[in-house]
Amino acid sequence: MPNLLLKDLPRYECLLEAAKEFPDLDPSACEAFLHLLRTGDESARVVEANLARHNITQGRFGVLMILVNRCAGDTSTLGPAELADAAGVSRATMTGLIDTLERDGLVTREPDTVDRRMMLVRLTAKGRSLLGEILPDHFKNMTLLMSPLSEFERQTLVQLLTKIQAQAIKFTAPVSAAAV
Asked: What is the pLDDT of residues 44-57, one digit of tens each?
């Protein structure tokens, strides 16, 4: 689902007018934010279209990418809790993702040899093969999306987005007991 449910973004003049009624509305901040959301939505659509051609969702793809990025070789594994933390989802959500990936033969669950109460998730040969089919177009699409920007502009964009991410984290950081 898109983050921005507006077909057309408001014109800057409309934001200026709205700021008269809402003094906390900074028109340039609002305009930049709306463009950020729109760009994220459009970029996500490109990714989702590529994944749909391979009958996989963004969530399931993310799990496969975590496994392939974190696990070197065929013997490396991660637990469901580690996968959930790495993906930024709940453990229940990760269980559902792993269930469907396992059903499709893309991952396996294996008992942990050290702690038999724990299960570990491993990418299968079929999962690696699927990534081998998806990733060429995935990386090509990333390159094409970023092609209007020079290398310097890309580096600047990363720096700017990193600042916004740090600010967003402040909004969602838990309030300590001392601050209450």
From this structure: 999 999 999 999 99
Q: Would you say 113 and 127 are in contact if contact means Cβ atoms under 8 Å apart?
A: no
E strands of the chain, at which residues? Answer: 107-111, 119-123
Phi/psi class of residue 29: alpha, beta or left (left: φ > 0; alpha: ψ in -120 to 50)? alpha
Residues with Cβ within 8 Å of 16's Cβ and at least 6 positions away in sequence, in order, are 27
Task: Tell which phi-psi region holds residue 73, choosing left (phi > 0), alpha (psi between -120 and 50) or beta.
Answer: left
3-state secondary structure of 123: strand
| Helices 58-70 + 80-87 axis angle, to 10 | 110
Contact between 130 and 64 under an 8 Å Cβ cutoff? The reply is yes
The model scores a pTM over 0.85: no
Length of the chain: 180
| Token pair belonging to 119 | 């299960």
For the record, the structure tokens of 9 come out as 């973004």
- The tens digit of pLDDT for each residue in 34-80 reads 999 999 999 999 999 999 999 999 999 999 999 987 555 444 678 89
Q: How far is CA 113 from the centre of its chain?
A: 31
Joined tokens for residue 151 = 């290398």
How do beta strands 107-111 and 119-123 pair? Answer: antiparallel
Whether the Cβ atoms of residue 89 and residue 59 lie closer than 8 Å to each other: yes
Q: Which two tokens stand for residue 101?
A: 């990936």
